[in-house]
Amino acid sequence: MILLVLIALSLAAALAYFRLAERDRQGLVDAKVTAARMVADLFAVSLSAPLDFGDQDAIDAGMNHLRQNSDVVYAVIVPTAQSKTGTTLTPTVLYPEHAPLGGPAAGPPQGSAGKEATTYATADRVIAYRPVLNEQSELVGNAVVHFSLARENATYEAHRRQLLLIMVAFTVLLGGAILLGGRKFILGPIARLSAAAKQLELGKAARVEVRARDEVGRLGDAFNAMATAIEDREQRLAAARRRLQELFDNMRQAIVSFGPDGLVRDDSSRNAKTIFGPDLTGKPLRDLLYPGMPKYDIRLQSFDMWRESLFQADPGTLDEFIACGPTSVEMVGHDGDQLSLKLEFRPLLDPDGDQLNRVMLLATDETDRRRLEQTVKTQEKEHARQMLAMRRLVAGGAQLFASFVGMVTERLARARELVAGESEGSTVLPKKDIDELFRIAHTIRGEARVFDLGVLESEMRAMEVLLANRLPESASAGRERAEQTTQLIADVRQHVQKAEQAVERACAVFIEASPIGAAVLSQVTVQKSDVQTILELAGSRSDALGRAARRLASRPFGECVGRLSEAVTSWAESAGKKVQLAIDGRDHTVPPALARALPGVLAHIVRNAIAHGIESIDDRAAAGKDQIGVVHITCADATGEGGAEGREVVPIITIEDDGAGIDSAALVARARAMGIAIPADPQELVFENGISTASEVGDLSGRGIGLAAVRQELADLGFDIKVSAALGKGARFVIERMKTES
Amino acid sequence: MNTAVPPGRGRVLIVDDSEIILSRDRLRLMSEGYEVRTTTQTVGIAKYLRGTDVVLLDFHMPGIDGVAVLRSLKAAADDAGLSPLFYLYTSDAVRAGEYAELGFDGVIRNKGDTESLVLQIEAAFRVFRTVALLRRTKRP
C-alpha cells in the first residue's frame, strides 16, 4: 500500500514538476514575446519612412541598430512597393546564416491578413512579423525579426534542473516520512496484531498494546476484545469437555466414537482405554474389536460391510441398519484377559439432522456376568443330570440299582470269604486269591462310579492299590513278606467292611429319596428272585421252556448303559477332553448274568478309551480330527434273527472309539520287559495283567489290570472280548459269546 | 438329510462329508435358534435351497468336484430367484484365504470349533440382513 502511495506521490511530483517547469518556460517565453513585440513594433515604425521614401541607408542603419540587440538572430526587411522616390529597394537581411530552413518568411504568415502584425514563439525563437505602413496606411514593406530564445531556454533548463532536484528531494523526503510514519504508525501495529493473532492461533494468550486512539488503535482494541472472547469460549468448551469426559469415565460402558472411515475419534472414555488400550485415537475400530483376525474372517467382513452401509444409509433407516450391527464380541483385551463385551451403537447426526456424522459405541464388559451365567448353567446342568439320574434310578434305573446292589453284595461277600477264611495272623494269601480280590475291587469300583457312590469307590480304589502293589511279589516267600501279607489281609478286611457299610447307606439313601424305593427294591428283589428261580429251574434246558426262561430273565441292553452318558461327560471333563457317547441297540436283550456284569465292563472300557484312547483337544486338532471324540457302543443280535419268535437272542456288543488306537510296539516292549510271552496278535497284550503303557496311573485307569479282569469276568459268563485297533485311528472292542466246540 | 426345528434366527444348510461334524454342528446351531439342514450328499440338493439363507459347503469332500457343486447350487439359486449366501466351510487357513477365487461369498473357518461356528454364523446372518436391507432401501 505504501509502495502504491509512494508511486502515486512520485507520479504527482513528476506531474507537478513538469507543469511547473512548463509554466516557468512559458513565462520566460511570454516575456520574450512581449519584448520582441515591442522591439518589432518600434523597428517597423522606424522603417516606415525609409521604405516609403526608399532610403536604403536609413534601412541599413535601422538594421545595424537592430544588430545591437543580442537577442536578434535574424531579421529581414522586404519592401513591397515602389518607393515614392522611385528607388528600387532590395530586401535587407541581418544574419542571413541564421535564416530559417525553407527561406525567409518575408511575407505574412499563412493565415494572416497581410497587414496584421504577428508575433509568435517557436522552440528556439520568437518570430515577429510586422507589416510596415506609411502614413497613408499603405503597406510599404514587411519586416520579420527573429529573437533567440537561447537565453530563456538556458534559464529554463537551469530552472528545470533545480526544480527536478527540489521535486526529487521533496519526493524522497516525503516518501521517507511516509515510510517511517507508516512503519511506526501502521506497519508496526499491524505486525504486532499479526504476531498476536498467531499466538492466539497457537492457543496462547495474546494481547496487543494500544497506544493510539486512531483507526489502528481501534483495530487493536477490537483484537483484544476478540482474543478475550475466544479465550473465554475456549475455557467454557474445555470445562464442558471435562464434564463430558467425567461423565464418560464414570459410565460403566467403554465409549468410543468413529466416523465413516471407521477410525476412532479422540473422545473415548476411561473404560475404553482400559479395555482397548491407551492410544485409541485414529485406530480402526474393527482392529480393536477383532484383534489379530485374518482379513477374510467373516466377522471382519461383516463389520466393514455394515459400517459402510450405515454411513451411506438414509437417516430415516438408520435404526434398521443399526440393528444389523454386531451386538456382542469375544475378544482378548488390552491386558490380555479374555473379555465378553455387549455392544450398542448409537448414531450421531450432524446439527441439520440429515447426515450421519459419527457413530458412538457403548461396550459393556459382561465377562463376569457371562462367567456367572456359565457357572449357573453348568450347575443347572449338573443338577439336571443328577435329577435325571435320580429319575432314572427311581423310575427305571431302580431295577439297575437293585441289580447293582445285589451283585456288589455278592462280590463283597466273596471277598470276605477269601480273607475271612484265613485265621487271624495268617501269613498266606495265594496269588489266585489276590487276583480274584483285585478283580472284585476293580469291578465294584467301576460300577460304583457309574452310580456316583464315592465312598464305595474310594474304598475299592484303596483296596486295588494295596493288592496291585502286592501282585508282582505275591509269589515270593520270606518272613518279611509274611508280615506284609498279614497286614494286607487285615487291611482288605477293613476295606470290605467299609464297602459293605457304604452299600447299606446307598440303599438307605435310595429308599429315603424315593417313597417307592423300598417297594421297588423289594419288588425287584422279589421279581429278581422269581425270575432267578425260573432261570435256575429251566434255564439250562434246550427246549422252548428253557429258551423262554432265558428270554424272561434277559434284560434290555439299555439298562446296562443307563447312566453311562452322564458319566462319560464327567470323565471327559476330568481328563480335559471332549467326548461324545453314542449308543445303539438299547432294545436288544442280553442274558441276565451278562446284564449284571456289563455296567462295570462297559464303564471300564469307556473310561480306558477316554483316558488312553481319545486324544486331547489339541492333539486331535493336530491330527486333523474333530475336537470331540466319539465312543460308540452298539448292541446287536449276533444271530441276525432279531429275537424272532422262539429264537434266542445272542448279543454282540461293540465298543468303538476314534482315538489314538493301540500302540502295539509299546505293548510288545513292555511285555518283553516283564517277561511276558508275545502272542500272535500283539494287541491281545492289552488283556494281560500288569501291561500298561500309561506313563501315569491316574484316577481313571492305567494300572494294566482292568482289561484282564474284564476278560476274566466275561469268560466266567461264557463271553469273550477281543480288540482290533489301528494306530492313530481308534480301537474296537467286541464282546461276543464264546464259540463252543461241537 | 436332517432337518430341524421351528423357525428361528434363520435357516442354514450345511454340506459336509462328516456325519459327526454335521451332527455336532446341527445340535449346536439348533440350540442357538437356527433352523439347520445337513447333508453329506452333493447331488440333488438344490431343492433344499428354498428358504435357506446361508449355505456352508465343504469344498474338499473326497471324490467331489467342489467347483461343480458350488456352480450348480448357485445356478439353481439364480434360476429360482433365490439369493442365499454361500460360504466355504473349512479348517484350512490357506484355502480359507482363497474363498473369493473359488466363488464363495465368504468363509466360515475353524471347522470343528462349534463356539467359533456360532459366532461366525451370527456374522454371516448380519451380512445377510444388511444385504437385504440395502436392497430394500436402495436410493433411486
The major beta sheet of chain A can be summarized as: 5 strands, antiparallel
Indicate the structural class of chain B. alpha/beta
Strand content range of chain B: 15-25%
* N-to-C order of helices and strands of chain B: EHEEHEHHEH
Q: What is the overall shape of chain A?
A: rod-shaped
Provide a count of the helices of chain A.
Answer: 21
* Helix content bin of chain A: 40-55%
Largest pleated sheet of chain B: 5 strands, parallel
Nearest-angstrom radius of gyration of chain B?
A: 14 Å
Q: Mean of residue pLDDT of chain B? A: 84
Tally the helices of chain B. 5
SS-based class of chain A? alpha+beta
Terminus-to-terminus distance of chain A = 132 Å
Briefly, what is this?
Chain A is an alpha+beta fold. In chain A, 55% of the residues lie in helices and 15% in strands.
Task: Give the SSE map.
The complex is a heterodimer of chains A (742) and B (140).
Chain A: H1 2-46, H2 48-53, H3 56-67, E1 72-79, E2 92-94, E3 118-121, E4 125-133, E5 139-148, H4 150-201, H5 215-250, E6 254-258, H6 270-276, H7 285-289, H8 298-312, H9 318-323, E7 328-332, E8 338-349, E9 356-365, H10 367-420, H11 431-450, H12 454-470, H13 479-513, H14 517-538, H15 544-553, E10 555-556, H16 557-560, H17 564-574, E11 579-584, E12 589-590, H18 592-613, H19 617-622, E13 629-637, E14 651-657, H20 664-674, H21 706-716, E15 719-726, E16 730-737
Parallel strand pairs in A: 11-13
Antiparallel strand pairs in A: 1-2, 1-5, 3-4, 4-5, 6-9, 7-8, 8-9, 10-12, 13-14, 14-16, 15-16
Chain B: E1 11-15, H1 19-31, E2 35-39, E3 54-57, H2 66-79, E4 85-89, H3 93-96, H4 99-102, E5 106-108, H5 114-137
Parallel strand pairs in B: 1-2, 1-3, 3-4, 4-5
Helix pairs in contact in B: 1-5
Can you describe what's shown?
The complex is a heterodimer of chains A (742) and B (140). By secondary structure, chain A is an alpha+beta fold. In chain A, 55% of the residues lie in helices and 15% in strands. Chain A has helices spanning 2-46, 48-53, 56-67, 150-201, 215-250, 270-276, 285-289, 298-312, 318-323, 367-420, 431-450, 454-470, 479-513, 517-538, 544-553, 557-560, 564-574, 592-613, 617-622, 664-674, 706-716, and strands spanning 72-79, 92-94, 118-121, 125-133, 139-148, 254-258, 328-332, 338-349, 356-365, 555-556, 579-584, 589-590, 629-637, 651-657, 719-726, 730-737. In chain A, strands 2-1-5-4-3 form a five-stranded antiparallel β-sheet. In chain A, β15 (719-726) and β16 form a beta hairpin. The longest helix of chain A is centred in the middle third of the chain and has 54 residues, at 367-420. Chain A is rod-shaped, with a radius of gyration of 67 Å. Chain B has 140 residues and is of the alpha/beta class. In chain B, α1 packs across α5. Chain B is globular, with a radius of gyration of 14 Å. Residues 1-7 of chain B have low confidence and may be disordered. The A-B interface holds A 294, 296-299, 301-303, 305-306, 309, 313-314, 317, 320-321, 323-326, 330, 580, 621, 624, 626-628, 630 and B 18, 20-21, 24, 87, 91, 93, 96-97, 99-100, 106-109, 112-113, 119-120, 122-124, 126-127, 129-131, 133-134, 137, 139.
